[in-house]
Amino acid sequence: MRAVFLLPLVLAVCAASSIREKDLDWWETTIFYQIYPRSFADSNGDGIGDLNGITSKLEHIKDIGVEAIWLSPMFQSPMYDFGYDIADFYAVHDEYGTMEDFEALMKRAAELGIKVVLDLVPNHTSNESVWFQEALKGHEKYYNYFVWEDGVIDENGQRQPPNNWLSRFRGSAWEYREEVGKYYLHQFVIGQPDLNYRNPDVVEEMKNVIRFWLEKGVAGYRVDAVNYLFEVDKALFGGKYPDEPLSGKINEDAGSHASLDHIYTKDQNETYYMVYDWRDVLDEFKAKDGVSRVMMTEVYATIQNVVKYFGEGDRVGAQMPFNFDLITDVDASSSAADIKRAVDKFLTYKPVDKEANWIVGNHDNSRMATRYGPALVDGINMIVLLLPGVGVTYMGEEIGMVDGYVSWEDTVDPSGCITNDPINYWKSSRDPERTPFQWNDGLNAGFSTAEKPWLPVAEGYNTLNVEFQKAAEKSHLKVYQALAKLRQEKVFRYGRYESLALNEDIFAFRRWYNNKAYIIVVNMRDTDHVVDLTYFENVSGTVQVELRSVASPKNEGDKYDASALPVVAYEGLVLEVK
What we know:
eight-stranded parallel β-sheet; alpha/beta; Oligo-1,6-glucosidase, domain 2; 578 residues; six-stranded antiparallel β-sheet; Immunoglobulin-like; disordered N terminus; 29% helix
């Protein structure tokens, strides 16, 4: 009876595979490379990275096998939060260049086959924006662009904020303005007043921003802090915003954002539908030329809420709700089982017809090589680039850049500065993961000719740089390039996946398609092992080394018994099953 059903099943699978190959869109096959413009390359010697600097380094992007870059905000801004406080959504920040410089970047990127994705920061603007300044003057249209509320008078007759809502940067989320006699909401720094998405004018304004840059040729957006977009409808509470309950988290003082459970200021249901509406705008442009524009959403939330951004029913949303599990759930202390759980979580919860995505670092979190340890750079890159789905690389991960040391005197990140703590500021500061990119062993690691760049260069750049690694016989850069090439194979584009924690230390996963299969093995610890890969179904005989981490004693082409593979400390291997 089993043989009767086997042939139709095989045919169905083969047919599905054939259709699948035709369906892959450009964003599903590339690597997205995040560039923090202020720290990538300085073209004019002022110590600050800029657009012309990025343009001058696009060949590096092409060389490492990346076909899409995502730029952190490059819009006009007073830079209190280094670009995430936007004063003019339609203009380029003057320290980064001009609109002509942006257009030149777009032109060169197109020549190299590189798509450009921008950061969209829709939750808030800058208090120096025309919108906010007009609001303070009593301009009704722009007054209604923001969230205002009356204060309350306490028992001592003193005016206090409307409720207990807290900013991500500590302290009240409300700031009083004498000009209008009310408090405005800022869920981030004081200079970032929240926009009011219950106002149709704001909704249309942001759609116009999206269209403006799409007309310039950008390939889509990464949407910042999107789950803060809506607050609860205060009409449901008698016209007053309610207090949020205590989170119950220990060791959190009353001014800490984590001390409250943000049930009224995050993850409101309307947020998902706003994202779906933005996707409709992107699809307007696809309807014109047949080319997809991609949307990536930044959301630190439960996995159940993250996957809602994919869409609901007949509404489509973001193609890539960012998966931060390899940042938030695991680090150097994690076991192989922890890694497996973190990887499998997103694959389990995402819709079956949607792509996964993998991220291990960004401008807000300690660098991958620091969190996992420099010895695991190649192994972690193997995981990110060879798992099923889209790989995202934060600039410098291809060479294993680590967090830089930034003294209290040199600290500029508001998250660190607001602590007013010269001893423990580094626990909150994001400056260490934003230090300048390391191009060579020259002045400021080749980032800038300035006497002093905006942030100090990390120590060790004399050997940890692009130029050194390009010349070396073995390097993280060359492993990364090989991984980028390997992921173009059908087995990694279309293949199936299964994973195992072979023991406490070794995480492994298999990718297979038709008659070809690979096993990726990563040892998370400083301990040697001999492991049996035949625990994977249909694996026996020998495996051959296709690629190995820099410190591995093995060579490409070496063959091993699949039932007794020796794995040394922190080794990463890509093995073809023979």
